[in-house]
Write a structure and sequence with these properties.
It is a single chain. The protein has 83 residues and is an all-alpha fold. The protein has one domain. Helices cover 77% and strands 0% of the residues. The chain is built from three helices and no strands. α1 crosses α2, α1 packs across α3 and α2 packs antiparallel against α3. The longest helix is centred in the last third of the chain and has 26 residues. The model has no long low-confidence stretch (mean pLDDT 85).
């Protein structure tokens, strides 16, 4: 369990950066960015073969990182809007 969370934390920053880069290209509608973040996280998690855990655990870490990247972006976006 700890391995999944550690890997998800490491991947989340990369996932967030990649989703922001995809967002700048305007190839994908903004409403699909959370789904894009999860897909990017899954790809990054699956490709993290240097971590000695199973592929299922790496995919879980990738999905968690995609969700975390989406939450991190929304937190930053909502913090800038003052009521």
């Amino acid at each position: 369990m700890y391995n999944i969370l550690i890997l998800a934390t490491a991947i989340a920053t990369v996932t967030n950066g990649m989703v922001q880069a995809i967002k700048q290209t305007e190839l994908i509608s903004k409403r699909f960015l959370p789904l894009t973040a999860i897909c990017v996280g899954l790809i990054l998690g699956a490709s993290a073969t240097f971590v000695p855990i199973s592929i299922v655990e790496r995919l879980w870490a990738g999905a968690i990182s995609g969700l975390a990247a989406t939450g991190l972006f929304e937190l930053g976006k909502n913090a800038n809007h003052k009521p």
